[in-house]
Amino acid sequence: MRPLSTSSRHAMASTGLTALGLLAAASCLAAEDAKPAANPQQPPTNQQPTTAQPPPTTDTAPLYVRSRRLSDADLAKKREGIFFTGLPEFTSDPVAGQGFGLRANIYWNGRRTDPLFAYTPYRAKLTMNAQVTSGDARELTLSYDMPYVKGSRWRLKVDGKAREDPTNLYFGLTQETLNPLRLPTTPAGGPTYDTFSQFETARKTLRPGGPGEAAFVTDSLSNRFRDAELMLNVKADYAIGDGKWRVLGGYEYQRLSYATFGGRQASAVDPVTGASTTAPNGIPLLDRDVANRGLNGLQGGVVSILQQALIYDTRDFEPDPTRGVYFEIANELSLPAIGSQFLFDKLFLQARVYKKLPFGPRTVFAARIGAGNIFGDNAPFFEFQDQWSPDGSINALGGARSLRGYVANRFLGRAVAFANAELRVRLGEKVIAGQRFGLNVVPFVDVGTVRDQWAKLNLDKLRWSYGVGLRLAWNQSTIISFDIGKSGEGQLIFLGIGQPF
Prior knowledge:
By secondary structure, the protein is mainly beta. The chain has helices spanning 6-9, 16-34, 72-77, 196-204, 285-293; strands at residues 13-15, 82-93, 97-108, 124-133, 138-146, 154-169, 207-208, 216-217, 224-240, 245-259, 265-269, 276-280, 301-313, 324-334, 344-356, 363-375, 386-387, 394-395, 415-432, 435-451, 463-474, 478-487, 490-497.
């Protein structure tokens, strides 16, 4: 499974409507908390009531859904029927450039008389996402999710994606990436850089070219590569017994292509005068690793994958849980026998816990621990960039869903382990024009490491990040996240849809 789009993988500075929406929500909610209680009034016809009818009695619901019942507070606010949420998104990124996108969801929630209403986040959801950036990245995705198909034990998910991105980052494919940043031409023991901004400056500095390079070159693009992807994924899971355990099977087809930027004109800085100029880019790190380490996958091709997972899930509300446990063992197998040009197997385990704390209107402690390994001596480099999960793939390591103080793909290795913890504190809620909004502040901490062999995973060379975020819950199911992550290499800002875990 390939990682998420540029907007999910790289640091983002939010501008325009999205940032204004978060600030407006914060001010509205703060003002609402300061008001005295108003006399109850009949809500307008186009607005959902703030109080709800009692849910159906539990004996009308099938046994296999009863462990997933929403909390009374969330159930009272859950919206009925069909509704739409959409988010125009403006972004700015030092690598990807200025971007614009649109994320939209259509939810089918059903009625309160439905026996499954109190036990499902929705009866069906269609998600659409389109984005383009001035850095020439573009993406279009469509996703459909139907829990408990026609009231049965089955769940169906279908995902399609077309994307092209010239702003991917690559720092290596081994545990050596845990070392400080250094230029592709720097030998072991040579100069290193403590922060990513220092590294960016060094990459642009003109240097004498080596074998196969121009007389003077820049490394401005030496840690970047372009990828293009067409993907279709279909998976279904089946609830066992009382529904806490599920087994999943799926199939994914990808057509991938890659390119690097050796010899391309790129930005440079004259080390003598400090003047900005352009120069041919030197040999990229990815090309060097193909030549020197036999790295596989740069040629692209077809990837055909069988997916399997065993899942234990007692979360009360998947998009934004207040209680419950999620555990999974997930596996992806790619074989020439099923039409793939690559042979590898990826195993990933993770466990999450959600606990509502006894203070504030909705204060939730959330934590996750995960570990994965890639098997196959000649596994392609692009499969090192993420860990596949039926609940959403995770960049490994760095980026919005793992170590939020580091850029995406900062640390890669055959084996990976990481953990995250968040305190999700609800500041207030308000219904505006029939739409319910809730605002949370979220301090967090992340930690992780990589190794060349899974048996050597330990607590040595851990990399930490920490920070704080805002989460805006729109009609409960759509979560807009805004996180500021810090580490020893700098500070990054991430904007996205959904909780990180």
